[in-house]
Amino acid sequence: MSSIKLMLYGLFSEQAALLAIFTGQPLWYRFGLFLSGHLLASFLFSLLLGIWFPRRFAASRRLLMMLFFSFNFFVPALGAIGTLLILLYFIRYYTDEERPEFEQVPLPPFLSESAAVGGGMGEGGAWSRLRQNSLPRGERLKALLSVGAVGGGNAGRLLQHATGDSDDEIRLLAFNLCERQEQKIQQAITTAMDELQTAETPEVKGTLCRNLAFSYWEMVYSALAQHDLRDFLVDQAAKYASLAQQYGCVNPALYTLLARIYLYRRDYRQASEAVEAALAAGGDRLRVVPYQAELAYHARDFAAIRRLLQEDPAIRFKPGIGPVAEFWGVR
User: What is the pLDDT of residue 274?
Assistant: First the structure.
């Protein structure tokens, strides 16, 4: 059945339903005629719109038809007018032609990866060696050892990537390096816990709690914890950071750590307050600029992102944040 026929039948049924109200028949008879004609018109109008649904709505076609049927049925006459206006919109603006601008999106500059082997043995050079299985095993082992010696968040992620390598020696070495880093941090946590139990002065307790907070966060930052364990470690870091504040250990680094914890938890209000507290405590403004820029991004204040990143002239040369700053137009 064509769209024109459906529209004509729907209009005729709706008109017949409205005219039935003004006949001289008994009330129940007029009500039955109106309900029958209006029900048929509502079904025809919903079917008419269903023909013009874009293909991306194919999975939810039944629910959409129920929605339009309800709209037509519970809004007599005016619902039909609204349906016709929607239909005119689809006919006028909807087309089956593909939008070429959505076919392909160029990769942002800060996500580009080179397939060539890096000239150095920094994170970039190590990553380029580890991801190429065609290189000799010795080259890849040297790259992995250099990553393990550096440490840090990116190094931890590279080690986690290497634990899934197809080469047994690479994979075992990556597991061993991850375990060494984890044992080193766990030993620092255990030592600080033991000293905290015997500490007597608030100053010593505050310092130990501060060290515990940074140690737990180091586990998260170095990508040594996954999923639920990561959330537990973040909670522990927040707990001991709060205890350190209660014992009077207040410094910009601790406030900056709290800002990073709140950003991880997506509590942007408290993260902003922690950043401001770090600055008020005498913290280096350039050290908190990346976190302020991240907060501005979540607030969708893109002008503030560019302004903040431009405050540090050397930010585009820093690893990690540098390519992001260049993406936002920092030169």
Answer: 92
